[in-house]
């Protein structure tokens, strides 16, 4: 059995322990047969419920429990890497990052227990968002990613940012999910898709996340399915391809914000900020992007 002791710390925050080991028998007892979401390369997710007066000091709550595919020989190594990467959530406590409550493993499967979030993937919401809602999603997403990139145990690179890896609550609070490919900068990731950002380096780099966030933000402000299609299908999508697609439109219209949002004063500035994410040699970091978004919001309120 894989030793997980070096990959987690049991933490307490707001009465909830974060990242604690739970026995397989208890996880089986907590788990229902009701599926949540779609099956992915790691496994399936089920609705769970942790009862009151449990032996872990946890409050009564609904949870989401991910169960890996069987640990058969040809999948064991990849599943183990993805499981270990998800355990990085044990040390990541942020409003815009999904919380990992516990984990376990048997000879047959890996188990991950997450906070239950009533939310939908951003990919399902893009076309119906108002401008205020879109800005709130952008600010929350970039805040969570900036936290990853500046973490004392990192910087961490998520390696799989898209509209499918962002859950959005009914109050339009985004949560970054799916840390299966999250690594410390410089380490190699297990992601099967081509890199979003062309790099000569062997290991993951923070700029890849920044570029992927730029694609996500571009899809959000343009409501353009072509951006989503290119990313989801794993097409060769370099900064030059993106710029060739949108620069003429930007020069003609002054900004790329979809007409349904209305003509907001900050539209051009935000478009310029997003293009900076897509420039290969830009010194931009997401903490600065978040600061500028907040300043724009404050200016609008004055």
Mind explaining what this structure looks like?
By secondary structure, the chain is of the alpha+beta class. The chain folds into 2 domains: 111 residues, Phosphorylase Kinase, domain 1, CATH 3.30.200.20; 183 residues, Transferase(Phosphotransferase) domain 1 (Transferase(Phosphotransferase), domain 1, Orthogonal Bundle), CATH 1.10.510. 36% of the residues lie in helices and 18% in strands. The protein contains 8 helices and 13 strands. The longest helix is centred in the middle third of the chain and has 19 residues. It is globular. The N terminus is likely disordered. One of its GO terms (molecular function) is protein kinase activity. InterPro entries: Kinase-like_dom_sf (IPR011009), Prot_kinase_dom (IPR000719). It comes from Chenopodium quinoa (Quinoa).
Key traits:
alpha+beta, Phosphorylase Kinase, domain 1, Transferase(Phosphotransferase), domain 1, 6-stranded mixed sheet, 3-stranded antiparallel sheet, 8 helices, disordered N terminus, ATP binding, ATP-binding, Protein kinase domain-containing protein, Prot_kinase_dom
Our count of helices gives 8
Judging from the principal axes of the Cα atoms, what is the shape?
Answer: globular
Helix content: 25-40%
CATH architecture descriptor name of the largest domain: Orthogonal Bundle
Oligomer: single chain
Q: Into how many domains do the coordinates divide?
A: 2
Radius of gyration, in Å, reads: 20 Å
What class, by secondary structure content? alpha+beta
CATH class membership of the largest domain: Mainly Alpha
GO molecular function, one term: protein kinase activity
InterPro entries: Kinase-like_dom_sf, Prot_kinase_dom
Keywords: ATP-binding, Nucleotide-binding
Protein name: Protein kinase domain-containing protein
């Amino acid at each position: 059995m894989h030793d997980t002791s070096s990959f987690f710390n049991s933490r307490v925050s707001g009465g909830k322990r974060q990242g604690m080991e739970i026995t397989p028998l208890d996880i089986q007892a907590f788990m229902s047969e009701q599926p949540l979401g779609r099956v992915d390369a790691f496994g399936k997710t089920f609705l769970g419920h942790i009862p009151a007066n449990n032996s872990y000091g946890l409050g009564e709550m609904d949870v989401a429990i991910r169960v890996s595919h069987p640990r058969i020989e040809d999948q064991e190594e990849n599943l183990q890497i993805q499981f270990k990467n998800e355990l990085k959530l044990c040390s990541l406590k942020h409003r815009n990052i999904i919380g990992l409550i516990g984990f376990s493993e048997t000879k047959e499967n890996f188990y991950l227990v997450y906070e239950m979030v009533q939310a939908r993937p951003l990919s399902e919401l893009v076309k119906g968002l108002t401008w205020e809602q879109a800005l709130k999603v952008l600010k929350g997403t970039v805040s969570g990613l900036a936290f990853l990139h500046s973490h004392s145990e990192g910087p961490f690179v998520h390696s799989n940012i898209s509209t499918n890896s962002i859950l959005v609550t009914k109050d339009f609070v985004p949560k970054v999910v799916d840390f299966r490919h999250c690594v410390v900068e410089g380490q190699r990731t297990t992601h099967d898709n081509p890199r979003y950002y062309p790099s000569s380096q062997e290991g993951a780099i923070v700029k890849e996340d920044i570029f992927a966030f730029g694609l996500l933000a571009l899809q959000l402000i343009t409501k353009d399915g072509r951006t989503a299609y290119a990313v989801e299908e794993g097409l060769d999508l370099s900064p030059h391809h993106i710029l060739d697609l949108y620069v003429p439109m930007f020069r003609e219209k002054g900004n790329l914000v979809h007409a349904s949002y209305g003509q907001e004063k900050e539209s051009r500035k935000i478009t310029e900020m997003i293009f900076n994410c897509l420039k290969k040699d830009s010194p931009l970091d997401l903490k600065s992007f978040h600061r500028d978004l907040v300043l724009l919001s404050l200016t609008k309120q004055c």
